Amino acid sequence: MKRLRKVYAMDTVLLVILILLLCSMPVQAASFSKKAPKPTVQVRGKKATIQWPKRKDLNGYLLFSCNENGKERTLVQETSSCKVKLKGLEEGSTRYYVVRGYQKKNGETFYTRYSKVLNVTSYRKSTLKKLLLTALQPVGSTMYVWGGGWNDEDTGAGGDALTLGVSPRWAEFFKKQDSSYDYRTTRFQIRNGLDCSGYIGWCIYNILEVESGKQPGYVMLAQRMAQNYASRGWGSFTPAGKVKNYRAGDIMSTSAGHVWMVVGACSDGSVVLLHASPPGVQLMGTSTPGGRQESQAVALARNYMQKYFPEWYQKFPDCSRGTSYLTDYSQMRWDLSGKVVMSDPERYRNKSANQILRNLFRSR
Fold first, then answer.
1. Which has the minimum average pLDDT: 56-60, 89-93, 146-150?
2. Which of 12, 107, 219, 271 could bond 157 through an S-S bridge, CB–CB 3.0 to 4.6 Å?
3. Domain residue spans in the chain?
4. What distance in Å separates the CA atoms of residue 329 and residue 227, rounded to the nearest whole number?
5. Angle 128-136/353-363 helices, nearest 10 degrees?
């Protein structure tokens, strides 16, 4: 019995010690989580809005400027809301930010982890005409190369798609090819040409950036491009099956893994387009919605390729694509308000493919 009393006494002492230890520890709310906020950004001209979902366990948030690795942080703003507006961004500049939250309780402050680095880029302004003139630069002299425009790791834009202007290697490689060119034999010769997403990514980089070599560029899986570009605030997104019409500059993506750019529509419902597709970068026309292959768009594409790119046309005269281009693609349509990145002073959006092509080739 005495032995049992000693055991109880020892347990009581240990319990008291444990309670004292717990009481001496800083009090932290049970609901607090160190999980970092997840900010997003919308850029409109020289202004940007950074925002993140509100959390009940946090009293406030801290926005820091930093370098691209999330270091060298400087406090920009402390706020109890979930939104910060930035003004006076320099056109063509990229700034980096991170966000962390905090909770205050019983005189103690508890911090979340820092968020992922957020890139805030104030893009150079452009027009639909500049976009299409830029997209014409590699036409008729650039082969389709699987992986062309991507980096060696195949994770995003490579050096060519981060460069202002066309690569001289593209034309050199084209001149060595004949009508038997088979892109399956040149896979991942990434410096010799462009694939579909490499081409569109190169176009976007060349209209929005002011110097070569900026990361990360605009090359990604083709099926993501229309929706991704719309999510940046550049324009509106319409999923496949709900696209009603086609206008100059529209970016069209399909889940099957292709992307192209609209030049303009014709009165028979066919569409003139620009894309990188075997054998290479060229103007093409779709069939009519009813499936007629000899459409107005095909005739226009054939006429311009034969007249302005005769060496290419002699090797690769096919200028047609089927009705799947009118049914299977989602659409990103540019915001032309001038408040984001794009405007349309020439009113291309209201012109036919024939009118747009005439204007474009007079300006080249």
1. 89-93
2. 219
3. 40-121, 126-363
4. 11
5. 70
